[in-house]
Amino acid sequence: MNKSTARRTQRAFITPRGLAGAESPYAWYETMRNSGGIHYDEEREAWDVFSYELVHQVLSDYKHFSSRTSTEGPVSSLIGMDPPRHKLYRSLVNQAFTQKSIDMQADRIGAIAGELLDKVAGTGHMDIIQDFSYPLPVIVIAEMLGVRPEDRELFKDWSDRLVASVDPTSGQTVQQLTEVKQQAAEELYRYFTEVIEWRRKAPGDDLVSELLRAKIDNEHLDMPSLLSFCLLLLVAGNETTTNLIGNALLTFLENQDALERLYAEPDLLPSALEESLRYRSPIQSLSRRAVEDITLNGKLIQADQEVVVWMGSANRDEAKFAGASQFIPDRKPNPHLAFGQGIHFCLGAPLARLEARIAVKALLQRCRHLHLDAGAELTRTPGSFVFGYKELPVTFDP
Ligand code: HEM
């Protein structure tokens, strides 16, 4: 890592001053939206963008706002690429991530959700995060990638270390954390190299075999691209889906009317999940870098400066969503930006939606009279980039 990248990485971990110590980011977002929607933060040396219109504009304009930023972490991949490289790479992985290949996972997702619920359903008590929404996406993606069942625990441990978020209370320095991630990435690389070699010889209908088959103009993904893509799936897909399911259930629990409606009308679930993606977006912000000088809403952004767009704020913008601070389970249309916008729009959105629909439906079917534990104190996961909770203890009819 060169000096300027190291400096930028350090800065990326600083919490914006307006958020430090705040219970929730929403008051800060509102203040910032109401005072122009775009601001420069001297301390982080970054622009922050808050209004729906401007966030949408930045994410749609890859020519001026590059994805090659400092916050890529140990895995440099699709998410940090610009066209033309991004277009070719994305077209290749799209071939493996089709709606059909995702829909094929429905039965397995249902079975995994069922197994997790079997363990707790009889007790009338569970922690929705630790017992349910955390293990589910890791097991789903491990199976899709062809990880052997006996290696699941190992895989989960690597995956955890790879996505470990910066916890200001952990006492770890940014450098220590980067080393932990680097080591996990290396172990995963070794593991996936074996899986890929094996699938080359014995192709199946798993994701790795599909990725090996994908080609454009006779061009296949090379080994480094295959490896970094497998790692990206873990980084991009697990904690986000955990938080989608956790945030949605918390939101339903806080809105008992909506919860009662969901028990009575399960068909309401897809739109209630979209609304919870808007209302409590699992990813609150994304980072871009200005390619050249550009003016945004009258502010001059200089070439190479960092631009952080806050989708968490855009999704609460009254100018776009009437009653933006209310949770409206049947809101339509709902053009939220929780999965991003433009050429990098989340590749895993169909999978995340399917997992959440199947998992939450199964949970509501099995757990009647769901309530948050009396006196539960909810702790948010650290960092301003993700939005989720560490635990969500609930009781229900056993
Ligand atoms: C990209 C959110 C689940 C794989 C993105 C982006 C967002 C996002 C905001 C855009 C990044 C950018 O523009 O820089 C989410 C949320 C999820 C979720 C909120 C769950 C609720 C998943 C899952 C997978 C996945 C389950 C795969 C298993 C990806 C990949 C990209 C991406 C590969 C990069 C696409 C590209 O650069 O072209 N996601 N994601 N995501 N996501 Fe997701």
From TrEMBL:
Gene3D superfamilies documented for this protein: Cytochrome P450 (1.10.630.10)
State if Transferase is listed as a keyword: no
A single Pfam family it belongs to is p450
Q: Does the keyword Coiled coil apply?
A: no
Going by the entry's taxonomy, the superkingdom of the source organism is recorded as: Bacteria
The alphabetized UniProt keywords are: Heme, Iron, Metal-binding, Monooxygenase, Oxidoreductase
- InterPro entries, alphabetically? Cyt_P450, Cyt_P450_B, Cyt_P450_CS, Cyt_P450_sf
Q: Which family does it belong to?
A: Belongs to the cytochrome P450 family.
Specify the protein name.
Cytochrome P450
Protein's organism: Paenibacillus filicis
